[in-house]
Write a structure and sequence with these properties.
Layout lengths: L1 H38 L14 H13 L1 H11 L19 H10 L1 H11 L1 H24 L6 H15 L1 H11 L5
Helix pairs in contact: 1-2, 1-6, 2-6, 4-5, 5-8, 6-7
């Protein structure tokens, strides 16, 4: 069981590294692509000239990706979460023992769910941040005309990503709200 917990924490750490790579490379290339599109806008026959504010949106999206931890922190706090995102730090592993799960089992399903979310906290945080990243990328692709997702779907995807980031607080709260625990 402890191997599964260690694997989940390592997977969350790996997602964090992949997200940092995607944000820095994607942010820089998107921002440079936006600047290039603005400079060559008048020269292209049917390029970004016909696409409204796509170059400006590319610059803004690139800036969002280059400051992605701050965007995640603001979004998380807006939704009432306490998760703090950063690209520089390493997460300390959560130590859990079988006796803690046994003690939680006597307290009911909300306590067990809270323990599980505490163990998988970094995995959910990194996965939720990736979902938010992909929501921004899908919206940028929609503006460019490269995919056909709706804006509403992308907004719901970003909100769900922030919800996944704060799953350790939302899961037990939903159980209490539904009346499944006291």
């Amino acid at each position: 069981m402890e191997g599964l917990f260690a694997f989940a924490q390592d997977l969350g750490s790996a997602f964090g590294w992949v997200l940092a790579l995607l944000c820095y490379v994607g942010g820089a290339s998107t921002m440079l692509g936006g600047f290039y599109a603005m400079v060559t806008r008048a020269e292209q026959q049917n390029g970004f000239l016909t696409r409204g504010f796509v170059p400006e949106m590319m610059i803004v999206t690139g800036a969002v990706f280059l400051s992605f931890p701050e965007v995640l922190n603001v979004g998380s706090r807006t939704m009432g979460g306490s998760m703090t995102a950063s690209f520089g730090g390493t997460a300390t592993p959560v130590q859990i023992t079988a006796s803690q799960f046994t003690a939680s089992a006597t307290q009911g399903p909300a306590a067990i769910l809270a323990e599980i979310f505490a163990v998988f906290k970094y995995y959910f945080a990194a996965y939720g941040a990736l979902v938010v990243y992909f929501a921004f990328m899908r919206q940028l692709g929609r503006a460019k005309g490269t995919n056909h997702s709706s804006t509403g779907l992308n907004v719901v995807m970003a909100i769900a990503g922030f919800g996944i980031m704060n799953a350790d607080q939302l899961g037990p709260a939903f159980l209490r709200e539904l009346g499944l625990t006291s």
